[in-house]
């Protein structure tokens, strides 16, 4: 801690991070031990965070992340979209296909940014807000690939055909190494086969988006 920082705010943020990393919540004693402060301090932190709906406590006294965090999280998408747009525009223009950034939203993949190429006669329509299961379509499959060691093997991208739209093919690569972000960058095109160079270009775009978000 330095003279310019707030110890109380720092502790409150650490509480939120600790709660976000557990599925079962934490007791006051557990938080006290992890933070290295007494239980009275933890009680005060939790009471303040509860007032803002950032923390909730169940009947057993275990603290969990509250719904107020979701309201804050909704404001993240515009920031992520803005940071990713330059890389997506470049990808769409280079490949001549609709480019998109897709993030995890629960059990679904959610398109949060879409850029269409400016010079093609036709392209696949793909809208911001489009949702689909994680295990269908290149974008979702790339996210699942990024969760395991498979992304370290092979070309680093996923190709699909006709899984979300008849006649359309997709290529996507996971966005890796960005804390708090789980997503993929991809393109969708009207083609039976996605050229190999498109897959490698998508991987490069995913790296560019990751760099912009770090």
Automatic annotation (TrEMBL):
The keyword Protein biosynthesis does not apply. Residues 68-214 form the IclR-ED domain. Residues 6-67 form the HTH iclR-type domain. Keywords: DNA-binding, Transcription, Transcription regulation. Gene3D superfamilies: 3.30.450.40, Winged helix-like DNA-binding domain superfamily/Winged helix DNA-binding domain. SUPFAM superfamilies: GAF domain-like (SSF55781), Winged helix' DNA-binding domain (SSF46785). It holds the Pfam family HTH_IclR. It comes from the Bacteria. This is Helix-turn-helix domain-containing protein. It comes from Streptomyces albiaxialis. The lineage of its organism: Bacteria, Bacillati, Actinomycetota, Actinomycetes, Kitasatosporales.
């Amino acid at each position: 801690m330095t003279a310019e920082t707030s110890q109380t705010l720092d502790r409150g943020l650490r509480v939120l991070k600790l709660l976000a990393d557990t599925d079962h919540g934490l007791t006051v004693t557990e938080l006290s031990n992890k933070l290295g402060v007494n239980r009275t301090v933890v009680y005060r932190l939790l009471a303040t965070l509860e007032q803002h709906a950032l923390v909730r406590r169940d009947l057993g006294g275990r603290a969990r992340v509250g719904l107020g965090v979701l309201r804050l999280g909704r404001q993240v998408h515009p920031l992520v979209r803005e940071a990713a747009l330059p890389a997506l525009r470049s990808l769409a223009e280079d490949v001549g296909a609709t480019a998109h950034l897709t993030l995890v939203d629960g059990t679904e993949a959610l398109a949060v940014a879409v850029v269409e190429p400016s010079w093609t006669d036709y392209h696949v329509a793909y809208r911001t807000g489009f949702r689909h299961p994680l295990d269908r379509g290149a974008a979702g499959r790339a996210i699942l690939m990024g969760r395991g060691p498979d992304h370290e093997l092979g070309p680093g991208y996923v190709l699909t055909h006709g899984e979300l739209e008849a006649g359309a093919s997709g290529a996507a690569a996971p966005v890796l190494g960005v804390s708090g972000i789980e997503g993929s960058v991809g393109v969708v095109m009207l083609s039976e086969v996605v050229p190999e160079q498109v897959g490698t270009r998508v991987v490069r775009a995913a790296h560019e988006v990751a760099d912009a978000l770090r």
